[in-house]
Amino acid sequence: MVEANGGQLQQLLINLVPNGRYTILAAGRSGCxxxxxxxxxxxxxxxxxxxxxxxxxxxxxxxxxxxxTTKGKGAGTGLGLSVCRAVAQEHGGRLRLxxxxxGTQIILGLPC
Length: 112
What we know:
29% of the residues lie in helices and 27% in strands. Helix 1 packs antiparallel against helix 2. It is an alpha+beta fold and 112 residues long. It has helices spanning 6-26, 80-90, and strands at 33-40, 43-50, 94-99, 104-111. The protein starts with 5 loop residues before the first helix and ends with a strand. It has a single domain, classed as Heat Shock Protein 90 (2-Layer Sandwich), CATH 3.30.565.
């Protein structure tokens, strides 16, 4: 069992899924967004993964900073991932990148 605010988790997904769509379109191809859950030793993980343009290793964790964006002017505020990280922290969890390069994987870890 995970104790969480459903509205806040919904907001998290409302931020992550369009980000994935944006990177797929930016890569100029059709693609896929996968949402998975799995058990972990200390809780559960919710993974949102796309096969879009990916995140360069050089910017890694910066994507979670407020107002940091890789989108063009007028296409994003740079607040989505920082809000997602705040939601994770409010629930005693952690939001992290699962990998860099081809595609992007964002993992929300929540305690049970």
